[in-house]
Amino acid sequence: MPTFTPPIKDQQFILHDVLKIADSDIPGYDELDRDFTSAVLEEAGKIAANVLQPLNAVGDRQGCRLENGVVRTPEGFKDAWTQMADGGWMGLDADTRYGGQGMPHLLNTATGELFSAANMAFQMYVGLSHGAASALYAHGSDQQKETYLPPIYEGRWTGTMNLTEPQCGTDLGLIRTKAEPQEDGSYRITGQKIWISAGEHDMADNIVHLVLAKIPGGPDGIKGISLFVVPKFLVNEDGSLGDRNGVSCGGLEEKMGIHGNATCVMNYDGATGWLVGEAHKGMRAMFTMMNEARLSVALQGYTQGEVAYQNALGFARDRLQGRDVTGAQAPEKAADPIIVHPDVRRNLMDQKSIVEGGRALVYWGAEMIDRSQRMGDAEAEAMISLLIPVMKGFLTDKGFETTVLAQQTLGGSGFTREWGLEQFVRDARIAMIYEGTNGIQSLDLVGRKLPSNGGKTIMAFFEMVKGFVKENEVDAALKEGFLDPLKAASKDLQSAAMYFMQEGVKNPLNALSGSYDFMHLFGHVCLGLMWAKMAKAAQESLDAGAGDEEFYRTKIATGRYYMARQLPATAMHLARITSGAETVMALDAANF
Amino acid sequence: MPTFTPPIKDQQFILHDVLKIADSDIPGYDELDRDFTSAVLEEAGKIAANVLQPLNAVGDRQGCRLENGVVRTPEGFKDAWTQMADGGWMGLDADTRYGGQGMPHLLNTATGELFSAANMAFQMYVGLSHGAASALYAHGSDQQKETYLPPIYEGRWTGTMNLTEPQCGTDLGLIRTKAEPQEDGSYRITGQKIWISAGEHDMADNIVHLVLAKIPGGPDGIKGISLFVVPKFLVNEDGSLGDRNGVSCGGLEEKMGIHGNATCVMNYDGATGWLVGEAHKGMRAMFTMMNEARLSVALQGYTQGEVAYQNALGFARDRLQGRDVTGAQAPEKAADPIIVHPDVRRNLMDQKSIVEGGRALVYWGAEMIDRSQRMGDAEAEAMISLLIPVMKGFLTDKGFETTVLAQQTLGGSGFTREWGLEQFVRDARIAMIYEGTNGIQSLDLVGRKLPSNGGKTIMAFFEMVKGFVKENEVDAALKEGFLDPLKAASKDLQSAAMYFMQEGVKNPLNALSGSYDFMHLFGHVCLGLMWAKMAKAAQESLDAGAGDEEFYRTKIATGRYYMARQLPATAMHLARITSGAETVMALDAANF
After folding, report:
1. Chain B residue with minimal CA distance to A558?
2. Which listed site, A317, A407, A541, B268, has its alpha carbon 20 to 30 Å from B1?
3. ipTM score of complex
C-alpha cells in the first residue's frame, strides 16, 4: 500500500526562499511567516497523511453507490469530512464576514496540495464546494451570500458546478436546460446535466448546485446562458432546511479513476432556482472563477505525480536487483538497490524535477491570484490569465506522465493494485480532461490569451524572463546551468509566438495546428524560469550559511537536471509548430 | 462500447506494396500472394471482430476467478478458444511435422495483429502457448517435441513461461527455485513463481509450464539456471493425461488491466519436470525465443493504439461541437463534427502515423525473423537482434501514448468505462513492463546490442538508410518530404552512437544515462525509414495506376505528417543524451 509524507520542507522553500512571501506587499501576506506557515502545513499534513491518505485506496475500491436516489460515499469519507470541517479547512481562504479564515489563496493552495496528494477523489468534494462558493461570493446577492456561504465554509453544506449536458461539454452554447421565470422571482429549472462531480453524496446536510441554463426568449448560443443557484433542500428564512427541491441524481458514471468521487447525472425537474448575477451573463460569472478552478486542477496534476514519485523512490531504494556498473554498492546483499542504475535515476530525476517545478509554478500562480484579488492588480490578473491554460494543460499532462514514470520504476509491481501506483495513474488521467480538456486549454491560450491586450501580456512575460536573466548573469554557475538554457528556451517561445503572428494572420489554421505544442513549449519555459529562480534562492541560502546544505545543493542539482534534460524539448515543439498546418490538415475527413 | 474493424487493406499494403513478400527469396513466401494473404486475413478478421472483440469488455469486467485451485476465465473465453483452435490458428506458423500449418512467422504476426487488437488479454493465452512451443521446438528433445507440440498446436493444451520470483524479475541470477535430479532422469521442482500469465485456466486440458530453476551444486548466478518442462498433468506414453503434477496456482494478481488474462502465483511443490536442452544453459534457451516474444509485445503496443485510434476517429466524426474556424462544415446541424478542428486533427494524425508506422516496423521485424530462421541468414539475425529492443521499447511506449491520445479525443467520454477507451489505456500499459521493462530494453540495446560484432550491425543499419536515401533522391517530392528529414534524423542517431563510443569508454555512466533516449531516437529513425518506404511504395502504386488513389495519397500525407511532426524529436533525444551522466547521477541516493 502506498504512503504519503507531506513535503513541508519543499513547500516552505517555495513560500519563503523563492517567493519570500512574508516580505510581500500583498495584504495578508505579512502574517505568513515561516513559523506560521509551518504550523498550518504541519496540521494539514497530519490530516492528509493520517486521515485522507489511508482512505485513498478504500475510495478507489469501494467507489460510490447510488441507492434509492442517495449516493453512499466510501467508508470513512464522512468521518474524514467532519474532521476537515472541524479543522476549519473548508473556508481557509474565505472571507471572515461569512465565516471563513481570511487567509490568502496561496496558503489554501499549499494545504490543498497535501489533501490532493493524499486523496484526490476526496479533495474534489472540498474543491467543488470552494469553487461554487467563490462564484457565489463574486456574483451572488448579499442575501445569497449570507444564505449559502457560511454553511459551505463550515463544511455543513457542499457545492457543485453544473455545466455539461449530453450534447455539450466544450460548446456550452448548445445548452438545453431551461430556466422559466416565476412570479416570485425564482426560476423553474428543467433539464439534464452530466458528469457532475460531487453532485450527490451523504457527507453534508445540503448541496448547493450552481447550474448553467437558458431563460427562454434570451439570446442564442453562449450569450443566452445564465447562472442559477439550486439547493438540494430549499432553505427557510432562518437558514434551516425546508422541502426537498426538484433535483435528483439519476445515475453514477463508471469511470477509469477517482472512484471515491461521485460523478453524477443530475436531473432537474422543475427545480426551484435563483438567478446568480445578471441574466444571460452566466458565462462571464463562470469565467471569473476559472483561473482559480483551473489552477486547482494544475495542482492535481503535479500532486498525483508527487505521491507517485514518493512511492517510486521508496521502491527504488528498497528493491535489490542487479549491480552498480561502477562497483557493488551493497556487497553484503544479493544485489544493489535499483536506485544505483542510471536509467532508474533518469526516471526518478524526470519525476522529481517535474513535481518540484510544478509546485513552484502553481504557488506563483496562486500568488498572482492573491495579488489580483487583494490588490486589484490588473497586470497580475492579465499574467495569471495568460498562464492559466499553460499551468492547467502542461502540468496535468506532465503530472500524468510522472505517475506513469513512477509506475514504471516499480516494474511489474507498478501494474498490480497492491502497490497502488496504478491508482495514481488512473486518478491523474482525469485532470487532463475536466475543467476544459487540455486541447481546449491550448486553444484558449493561442486563440484568446496570446493576442489579448494586443499581445502586451506575453511581451511582459518575455521582459520578465529577460530581466531575470540580465539581473543574475554575473553569477557564472547560474548563467551556465540555468540562464543560458532559459534564454534559449525563451527564444524558442518567442519564435513560436512570432510564427503565429505572421503565419496565423495569413491562415488561422497555422496557429491552431500548433496550439498544443505552444502550450507545452510555454510550460517548459515556465518551469525553466521556476528552476532558475529556485536555484538562485538555494544559492542565496547556501551563501548566507542557512544550514542544511544538502537540501539546497539538491535543489540546484535537480534544477540542473531539468535544464539539461527537459528544456531541450522546446526546440522540438518549435519545429512542430513551424511545420505549419499543411500536414495536419492534409486529409479529407473521409480519408482518415 | 468500442468497435474494431480489421484494417486488412493497410495490412495488405505493407505485405505486398512495401515488403513485396510474394517476390521474396525467403522459403515459403512464394505462397503468400495477394489473394492468399487476403483470404487468411479475412478469416482471421472475422474471428477477431465477431468473436474476440465482443469479449474484450466482458473479460475486463469479469476478470478471472480462482476457485478451489481452479481459475475460471471470463464467460465466452472457452468457446472462443475452441473456435480459434478449430480454425487452426494456434499452429499457423508451426512446423507441419508437429501438426502446424507451416506458414511464415510474418503471416502469424499479421493475423496476431487482428487478434491482439480485438482482445489483448485473450490473445495472450495464445501468445504464451506459442512462446512455450517455440522454446520446446528449439531446445527440446525429439520426444519432448512429439509429446508437447501437437496438442499445443491443436489448441488442446496451452503453455506458459515461468521466470519471475518475488525477489527477482530483471535479475534472474537471484532465482531460488530448485530442481533436484531424480534417478529416473526427471527433476523435482520446488519454488514459487509469480506474475505467470495464463498460469492456470479452464480453457485447455493441460498446461505445459516452462520453468527456470537451479540445479543444486551448479554455478552461481545466471550461469546456473536451467530450463525445465513441467506439465500440469503428467503425460502417459500414449499421450493421454496421467496424474496431476505438484504444481498449482496459489493466487491471482489484481492488476490495472488485462483482467481477462490470469496472472498467477505458481507454486511448485516437488513437481516433476524434465530438463529442456542442456543443464545450466537455461538463459540461452530463453534468449533464442526472445526476439519472437518481444516482437509480439511490440505488436501489442501498436495494436492497442490501433483499436483506440479507430474508436477515437469514429467519435471525432460523430461528435458535434463548435464550428470550423474557416467556415461551418455542417451548417444544417447545431455544430460541426470535431474532426474539423486542427487540434483534434493533430491528435488523430499523431495516432494514425504511429500506428501505421508501427505496423510496418513490426512486419519488417517478422520478415527478418523468417529470413533468419528459414535461411539461416546471420545478418538478418544480427539486425533483428539489434532492433528488437527498439521495437519493443519504442512501440509499447508509443502505443500506450496513442491510447492516451485516443482517450483524449473523446474528452469526458474517454474517461468513462462505457466508451471503453480507458480499457485500451489500462491494457496497453503492461506492454511497457513485461518481457523486460522498457528500461531494460534500452540497456540491452546500448549495453549489449550496440557494441556487439564490434558495431558492425549498427553500421549496417546506417548503410541501409544511406543506401535507401541515395537510391531514391532523384524523386524530388520524396527527397524533400521524406529523405531529407530521414537523413537528418539518422545523423542524430549516428551522433548519439558516436557520443556513446567516445564518452561511454571514458565513463560507462555516460552511455547508460542516455540509453532510454537512444532507444526512442532509434525508434523514430526506424519509423522515419518505414514511412519513407511506405511513401515510395504508395507513389509507385500511384504511378502504376493501381487505382484507389485516395488510399495511396493518404499514405503519403500521413507519412509527411510523421516526418514533419514526429521526427523532430530526434534532436531532443540527442540533446538529452549528450548532456551526459553528470546531472543524472548528481544526487546521493539519500538526497532524493
Report:
1. B583
2. A407
3. 0.97
